[in-house]
Amino acid sequence: IPDESFRTTRPDIVGPDVPDVPFPIKLSGPVQHGFGRGSKDLGCPTANLPDDSLPPMINAAKTGVYYGYAQVTPSEGTTSSLSDQDVCVLPMVMSFGWNPFYKNERMTAEIHIMHEFKTDFYGYNMKALVLGYIRPELHYTSREALIEDIEFDKKVALKSMARPGYEKYMSDPFFT
Ligand code: ADP
Ligand code: RBF
Ligand code: MG
Known about the structure:
Elements: H1 2-8, E1 25-30, E2 47-48, H2 55-58, E3 64-73, E4 90-98, E5 107-113, E6 125-135, H3 143-161, H4 164-167
Bound molecules: adenosine-5'-diphosphate, riboflavin (RBF) and magnesium ion.
Adenosine-5'-diphosphate is lined by residues 31, 33-36, 38-40, 45-48, 112-113, 115, 117, 120-122.
């Protein structure tokens, strides 16, 4: 089974030492409610970007799992329940693909930020700088296998972005 051999031989650093075209890809928009399929149950809540924020990704990249940085910021003129640590530029993993829930008629980009938030942040603006590709979307038959791979994706993202060519994007002028 091709998927199985891929899963047992995954490298923990992926992509070139410096982001290569089409990266970095900039995405931004207010966090949407997802489909309630329970990313949180997978130990991995994903903040969903709105449809109209996806063209930079759709036009430049294939579906799959990606790494980069994200930042959540309150909408202007509102009081925020987020702490200073919550509004930093933080490492993220993103699942980008067709959504079977909508009969594959819609692409979605779901971002898991590698940080413990005390509260949800639906409606807050989220900026994401996508810096590299990790792997294709796989068709999982077990929830355990998906959870295992997401945990590995997080390690890959952190190790891959620990390189100077990636770390510098934390202070990119795109972020506030
Ligand atoms: P939904 O189907 O509505 O997207 P999820 O179970 O994926 O539901 O949860 C996503 C929500 O969880 C986000 O919109 C955000 O408000 C919250 N959240 C809390 N911690 C995180 C995190 N570390 N990364 C992403 N979202 C988080
Ligand atoms: N779902 C899949 O069916 N196949 C995948 O390869 C896949 N990879 C994911 C990688 C990451 C980093 C994350 C956060 C989620 C992934 N998902 C995958 C889960 C999917 O996008 C969605 O979050 C779940 O269906 C729960 O809503
Ligand atoms: Mg989600």
